[in-house]
Amino acid sequence: MTGAQILFECLEREGVQIMFGYPGGAVLPIFDKLYDSKIRFILTRHEQAAAHAADGYARATGKVGVCIATSGPGATNLTTGIANAYMDSIPMVAITGQVKTFLIGNDAFQEADITGVTRSISKHNYLVKDVKTLALTIREAFHIASTGRPGPVLIDIPVDVQQAECDFLWPEEVSMRGYKPTYFGHPGQIKKAAKLISGSKKPILFIGGGVITSQAHQEIKGLAEALQVPVVMTMMGLGGFPGTHELSLGMVGMHGTAYANHGIMESDLIIAVGVRFDDRVTGRVSAFAPCARIIHIDIDPTSIAKNVKADVPIVGDAKNILGQLLEEIKKKPDTQKWLEQIHEWKARHPLRYQHHDNKIKPQFVIEQIYEATKGEAIIVTEVGQNQMWSCQWYKYDKPRTFISSGGLGTMGFGFPAAMGVKLGCPERTVFDIAGDGSIQMNIQELMTVVCNKIPVKVAILNNGYLGMVRQWQELFYKKRYSQTKLCNPDFVRVAEAYGAVGIRVEKTEEVRPAIEKALKIDNAVFLDFLVEEEENVYPMVPAGEAINRMIGGMA
Amino acid sequence: MKHIISVLVENKFGVLARIAGLFSARGYNISSLAVSETQDDALSCMTIVVEAEDEKILEQIKKQLNRLVDVLTVTDFTKKEHIERELILAKVSCPAKNKTKLESILDKFQAKMIQHKGGIAAIEFVGQQQEIKQLLHELEQFGIRELVRTGRIAIAS
Fold first, then answer.
1. H or E element in which residue A430 lies
2. How near does any CA of chain B get to the CA of A301, in Å?
3. Ranges of H-type helices in chain B
4. How close A304 comes to chain B (CA, Å)?
5. Which fold has domain B2-79?
6. Between chains, do B60 and A302 touch, taking CB under 8 Å as contact?
7. How far apart are the two ends of chain A, measured CA to CA in Å?
């Protein structure tokens, strides 16, 4: 078999059903074999979109997302998508073509040292110099991408390796002596954690993306209900615990709910699961949860004690550990008073916004999408205000229903990611909640969704600004709106030019009917909501402040 | 504080770049680095000496080293009993009249003169940091023309 044939043989054996990408000179042998492959291929209009689509597919399905691009510019265009998947621990395999092995390092046409470029933004990467190692490399790449703390793995394959022939040998087992993730928690540590929980008066569960990755949502629910412990979520953790549950306090951090932030700050025990104490969550670290002991469960030891010291670190898979932990807890803590306090905060500081009859409020649009989809859509977001409002005003009851660029904060992620989500979950309604800035960062994918009949719905919260940056300029830079006022195209006509449907919504009373109409259309739809221009996301914790020092948060 | 970190890795291309990258990304300068194959030629041992500006950050770097797929073990010898040595090669000015004096100094340290030509002596010495420092101090009077050091290597005792 040739290297290109081996690649497809391996991809099919790994269960790959769909790939996203773009052809080019250094991947011609691969695309020639693709012609005969059973794998569905989605031709995007930009390599970055291919990486985001593979990422979205992986987030929605839990499977490894696969993208492919040619050498040089094709490969460098993937990098934002790779970095994005890396920051959010998303399983992805990125395949790139490379110039012929004897030309590497010669500044050949369309050459880039992509393994060098992606070294610090991928979980691992490979340059395949010998076709005999290709099958094992692909096997290892899928194994590394999908196990432990998942992440993107890049395989760089020179053209001559794609063309070279060798016997195909499928390695049944993968064993790497330097790569052995820990799955089971240390029993001694679990005992210590159980003891701390039993003795606590104000415990709080603090969950993140790791809960979704390890499919530990049932265990979280079990633990929260059995012990009557309230739950706060990071953005990546939304859906890890039902947002409509009475023990849910919603999102914590910079734009978290006031009651989630107060809950964390006043707690005496934080049970942190699959979180990395990101600065958007902790605010000023020295002021973070001053009275709390911390149990930190994570599969990646580098996440523990990185930002916040843990009293009881437990390395392993959240699902396994939570199961063991619940069995180990002999005495339940008495949390009744604590829950009363939390209910009081909830009643006193609800999320709110000023409704206006004549101006469309962005929060109102999201509430209406929530109602119209009965909370059952998969929501994908761009980055900025649209993202934060989507965290606040849609309630996520199930894992993998909120898809957003967390760690990297990549504008332009949402629309291509939504394509991947829809292809992974064709039965589900998929809404990309976008801003007028972000949507223009990958708007060319309108052609991909139309061509491939991927009926995603895009709600553009069009305020004519780069809203989040404008908000910071308003609050911290004396309203000097430097380069944040946007000139925009007519989004309705743009959508129509590509063969999608565009609907402009200018009045509050048109919001709901427009959403209902979009849901009935079996095509991609751009809903252009002309919303209040200078609406801010509140509550907000200014950068470097303690998270209970919220502005506009009724703190 | 200086740390001696020994990293056992797969003997493959690109591994050194990954490891160096974890230090350079934080603006950490590696003081010395010695890399070579071990008794198993599929494995290399890297001995890295680094000045830790912040112990917490170094802890994080060590964890991240461990996380690399090609890394098998990471040992920080700083607080462990260990044997360490460094090899130096030095060239000093040494006209014939000074040769005896130089030789007596070298004898004291059990250092070797491995070449003497054109008034220049090439010296080889293996020792610990303190000994190397003392030897270099004594050699200064001759005028050190060139100095090359391998960087420290260490093994648990």
1. strand A430-435
2. 7
3. 15-24, 55-67, 99-109, 129-139
4. 9
5. Alpha-Beta Plaits (3.30.70)
6. yes
7. 66
Mean local confidence (pLDDT), B56-61: 86
Assign domain B83-156 to its CATH architecture. 2-Layer Sandwich (3.30)
Q: Is the peptide bond before A539 cis (omega within 30 degrees of 0)?
A: yes
Would you say residue A555 has pLDDT above 60?
no
Q: Is residue B45 less than 8 Å (CB to CB) from chain A?
A: no
Chain A residues within 8 Å of chain B (Cβ atoms): 115-116, 119-120, 123-124, 127, 144, 176-179, 300-302, 305-306
Please list the residues that pair with A458 across neighbouring strands: A432, A526
Over the stretch A83-114, which tens digit does the pLDDT of each residue have?
999 999 999 999 999 999 999 999 999 999 99
List CB contacts (< 8 A) between A116 and chain B. Answer: 17
Q: Look up residue B121 and give its amino acid.
A: A
Query: Is A127–B21 a contact, with Cβ atoms under 8 angstroms apart?
Result: no
Beta-carbon contacts below 8 Å between A and B: 34
Give the distance, in angstroms, between the CA of residue A521 and the centroid of all CA atoms in the same chain.
Answer: 27
Query: B69 vs A120: CB contact, 8 Å cut-off?
Result: no
pTM (2 decimals)?
Answer: 0.95
Residue type, A293: R
A38 burial type by CB count under 10 A (0-12 exposed, 13-18 middle, 19+ buried): exposed
Q: Is the ipTM of this complex over 0.95?
A: no
Chain B residues lying within 8 Å of A115, measured CB to CB: 14
Tell me whether residues B21 and A119 touch, CB distance under 8 A: yes
Is residue A553 over pLDDT 60?
Answer: no
How many Å apart are CA A367 and CA A517, to the nearest integer? 16
Cβ proximity of A71 and A111 under 8 Å: yes
Nearest to B72 among A116, A123, A178 (CB): A178
In CATH, the architecture of A362-530 is 3-Layer(aba) Sandwich (3.40)
Q: pLDDT per residue over A374-383, tens digit each?
A: 999 999 999 9
What is chain A's length?
Answer: 555
Same fold flag, A3-163 and A187-348: yes
Q: Do B14 and A301 touch (CB under 8 A)?
A: no
Taking CB atoms and an 8 Å limit, are A119 and B70 in contact across chains? no
Question: CA of A302: which chain B residue's CA is closest?
Answer: B63
**Any A CB within 8 A of B1 CB:** no
Query: What average pLDDT does this structure show over A303-317?
Result: 94
> What fold is seen in the domain A187-348?
Rossmann fold (3.40.50)
Give the residue from A421, A420, A436 showing the smallest Cα distance to A384.
Answer: A436
What is the CATH superfamily name and number for domain A3-163? Thiamin diphosphate (ThDP)-binding fold, Pyr/PP domains (3.40.50.970)
Q: Identify each DSSP E strand in B22-117 by its residue range.
A: 30-37, 43-51, 71-76, 82-93, 112-117
pLDDT of A357 = 87
**A308 CA to chain B: closest CA distance, Å?**
11
A30-52 confidence digits (pLDDT tens)? 999 999 999 999 999 999 999 99
A302: chain B residues, CB-CB within 8 Å: 60, 63-64, 66-67
| A554 has pLDDT over 70 | no
Domain boundaries defined on chain A: 3-163, 187-348, 362-530
Question: Is residue A90 within 8 Å of A65, Cβ to Cβ?
Answer: yes
A531 pairs with which residues across the strands? A360
What residue segments make up the domains of chain B, in order of their start? 2-79, 83-156
pLDDT tens per residue across span B65-117: 999 999 999 999 988 999 999 999 999 999 999 999 999 999 999 999 999 99
Query: Is the Cβ–Cβ distance between A477 and A426 less than 8 Å?
Result: no
Q: Indicate the average pLDDT of chain A.
A: 96
Q: Give the minimum alpha-carbon distance from B68 to chain A in angstroms, rounded to a whole number.
A: 8
pLDDT of residue B55: 83
Dist. CA B53–CA A409, nearest whole Å: 30
pLDDT-based confidence at residue B26 (cuts at 50, 70, 90): confident
